[in-house]
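dude i think i finally got it to work??
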Amino acid sequence: MKKMIGFLFLSLVILGCTSDADNSANAFEKMNTNTTQSLTDISFINKNQGIICGSLGFLSKTNNGGKTWAHLNVGDNQTFMSAFMVNAQNFYTARLDLFATSNSGATFKKNENLPVTLTIFAIKFFNPTKGLLIRSGSIFRSTDSGNNWTETYKLANSSNLEITSDLVAYAYGGYTSDAVDNGQILKTTDSGQTWVTTLNSDSNIISVSFISDNIGYYVNNKTELHKTINGATTWSKIVTLPVYPSSVCFINEKIGYISTYEGKILETKDAGLNWKIVYNEPAERIFKIITKDNAVFAIGDNGLFLRKR
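look at this
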């Protein structure tokens, strides 16, 4: 009888441990986007309303945190590389051309004042009138809701943007080849009118996440995680990551997430010192992870959209 009780107790312990392990690697829920296109960018204005863009002219919006999606007809089949949602009515998507809607996606208008040259890698807005975009190594600024754009910085080694307040934004990126690996972070404190270089790095800056104007993080091609507490004036290395990151986002100074091209999402709860796998599907490439209002979302190949449970 004692042996039977001991066996049952041991079985319950094993089952309990197995359940915990499964849950820890299943912290994100996969939601149906009704597409197999690769998703390239994501933007949310709160935990419910957001947009995703991708290959072959794909753009879709949700009003319930990704549970359901409504496909939007932009009227073009170029692979969009950037998307930004200003509010429920106004949002943008771009690649070679810039498209905007002011009626929640019912119709889109192509910007005819922006000449077609090279890829628009990033577009962000401070507010409904002031915005930034990066195209072919230059940063452009708009003060009229994206109708007209003025170049404010040339030859930037940057391809992405992070806006932290009505005045402050960061541009970042770099270049990696067999012989070269370098990165750069630029900062503006006047809504993009002027820019200063705050970091020239010996490794490509893959992704940046700021939780305020002053506190931020970046991951680089050397798989390092760095942190600033003074608005990118100085950076301190926190850790060398156990994976190669595709993107990083922090909710606060303790909790953050990293995505990988190998289908993993890792979570830290101790300010980046230690990381634990909370999602693991090796067949799914994850390109980007973001947070909004404490909700966490990720996108990837074949229409992949994930939301933290």
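The chain has one helix and 28 strands.
im so relieved honestly
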